[in-house]
């Protein structure tokens, strides 16, 4: 995974998850199907012990467009609360780790708070 910062989408994989999810919505694929397709596409992460990145990125992407799925939300909040998926930032150093933990806590607050109105997405 190429990371360029501590933000939720500041790495290649998370950006790809968000991009694919939004593309499905732009293609007018129903929410549940778009979620299923993304999980299927990135399912290797579940087998490679990278589930934290998948759930966090997908929940953040869904929340941004007002379509947060309860199961995805629960999985993301769970990995945030457990501190899962922080290995790369631990290796980068204490400052980077603190920044990532802060970004995750901000996301947790976003996920558990009021959600934005559902956005209609269409191809440009």
Structure described in brief:
With 124 residues, this protein is mainly α. It has helices spanning 12-26, 31-41, 44-47, 51-64, 70-82, 87-92, 94-112.
SSE topology sketch:
Elements: H1 12-26, H2 31-41, H3 44-47, H4 51-64, H5 70-82, H6 87-92, H7 94-112
Poorly predicted runs are none
Terminus-to-terminus distance: 28 Å
Quaternary state of this entry equals: single chain
The largest β sheet comes out as: none
Rg from Cα: 14 Å
- Helix percentage: 55-70%
Judged by helices, strands and strand pairing, the structural class is: mainly alpha
Q: What form results from the Cα inertia axes?
A: globular
Q: Domains counted in the coordinates: how many?
A: 1
Order of H and E elements = HHHHHHH
Mean pLDDT: 92
Q: Which percent band covers the strand fraction?
A: under 5%
**Discrete helix count:** 7
> What is the number of E strands?
0
Organism: Arthrobacter jinronghuae
Protein name: DUF4259 domain-containing protein
């Amino acid at each position: 995974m190429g990371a360029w910062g501590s933000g939720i989408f500041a790495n290649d994989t998370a950006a790809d998850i968000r991009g694919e999810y939004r593309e499905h919505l732009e293609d007018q694929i129903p929410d549940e199907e778009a979620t299923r397709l993304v999980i299927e596409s990135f399912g290797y992460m579940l087998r490679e012990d990278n589930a934290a990145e998948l759930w966090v990125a997908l929940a953040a992407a869904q929340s941004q467009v007002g379509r947060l799925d309860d199961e995805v939300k629960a999985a993301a909040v769970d990995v945030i609360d457990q501190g899962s998926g922080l290995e790369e930032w631990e290796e980068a150093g204490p400052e980077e780790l603190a920044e990532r933990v802060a970004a995750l806590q901000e996301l947790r607050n976003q996920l558990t708070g009021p959600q934005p109105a559902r956005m209609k997405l269409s191809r440009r």
